[in-house]
Amino acid sequence: MAENKYSKLVKNTAIFAVGSFSTKILNFLIVPLYTYVLTTEEYGRIDLFTTTISFMLPIVTLSIQEAMIRYILGNEIEGKTVVSDCWLVYAIGSFLSLCLYPMYKLYFGTDTMALLFTSSLLLQSFNTMFAHYLRCIGKNVAYTVKGILGTIITLLLNVVFLLGFRWGMMGYLYAGVISQVVGVVYLLTVGQLWGKLTFRYASKETLKKMISFSVPLIPNSLMWWIMSAGDKYIINYFLGDSANGLYSLALKIPTVITLFYSIFFQAWQMSAIEENSSDSRRQFYEKVFKLTNALLAGLIVCIIAGVKPLYVLVMSDRFSPAWVYVPVLCASTAFNCQASFFGVVYTTSEKTSKAFITTALGAVMNLFFNFLLIKPLGLQGVAIGTCLGYMVVCLVRANDTKKEIHMDFDITRTILAVLVVLIQCTVTIVGGNVAIAVAGVAAVAAVIVLYRSEIFEICNKAVSMIRRKG
Fold first, then answer.
1. Which residues contact 421 (CB under 8 A, 6 or more apart)?
2. For residue 167, what is the DSSP state?
3. Gyration radius of the chain over CA positions
4. 3-class state of residue 409 by DSSP
5. Beta-carbon contacts of residue 138 (< 8 Å; ≥ 6 apart)
6. For residues 235, 240, 241 and 246, what is the CA-based torsion angle, rounded to 10 degrees?
7. 131 and 146 in contact (C-beta within 8 Å)?
8. Of 78-82, 318-322, 355-359, 457-461, which range is least confident?
9. Do 150 and 183 meet the contact criterion of CB atoms below 8 Å apart?
10. Helix 230-238 to helix 241-250 angle, to the nearest 10 degrees?
């Protein structure tokens, strides 16, 4: 039985990996096209458009999908009741969002941009909310296929609209909206939601319980938004659209780290909820924490080592200088990933208000250091401020997790791994090509030595799985 939960975690991680790798790799392959077709100003404006969408999503949806995951997987509320309650929330949120159309027009300046924003917001809200239903009912493969399908359509349309029709920024936005429409159709058909989107099974009691769980996650999401996306508004105000475009491209590589971790996190969240009442919960957390630490540290040092040649050789001259901000952003993403790991305990214990408190603290620290450092250090100051904000959240959540389940954090190795990454970041930013190469090799070697037992275990399990399939 003990082995089953690890096998299930690995299986779900593998399923989500297929989708995430496919979508992120395809997205990454088309980035050079954007750097040659779009100006840094256009890229910056597109990023502000998508960033504003991400700000509005938790407000429109009430983050109700998190309650859906918690209560369907926890077998505490009947599935059809949860779907009806979520559909009611979506209908009300969409109506209120439509009422704000004049504000969108005022913000974006034209009817076309306001209409695109409204359409994208409502479509993404639906996709965000009900894509998770596929996970809840065990259709993880269908969930993965949805992500791949949406990415392929987006990329194909971008090629047509940007290279064929030369529509520039508007072509990029049109492609996104059409892809979201396809996602809605997919969920309605494959997810068999046609007959389930009804208010018939809505329950006042269960809706109240779900909202009580999810509403504290709204300010939590907004605080995460401030930390991950709010920087761009500060950059835009102090340094302009062009600098925002550079920073957005610098975030592309750290996003790869988020990709790897989000693959695991989707499966981890499900397993943590299912194992919430288990007597071996503490041991489960500790083992998973050590294994993910090994993978995360290895991934980061490898990415930092190769980031300069990648940007210089692949990106256009206008965007290649963005590489210098990537190392610090990689470190900040690592703290973000671990903060997410510890944050699962708030979901399993239904203490979602603590998620908001910790994230709010990190957001305040992030904003403070951003305003403090942006003038003397420019974009690098923003990257450092973001890193410090994530570090605060990670430390506070680790402390809360220790109180909740009394887990061992493998302190010595964790601190040494953090020091290895920070030293490599510093050498990569200030050193020459030879120093960068030496630091990269040394960092990889250090991680292998630190986590040799975990790396050996991971390799052993991988070989065993290959042999079984062979």
1. 297, 300, 301, 304, 330, 331, 334, 443
2. -
3. 22
4. coil
5. none
6. -60
7. yes
8. 457-461
9. yes
10. 140
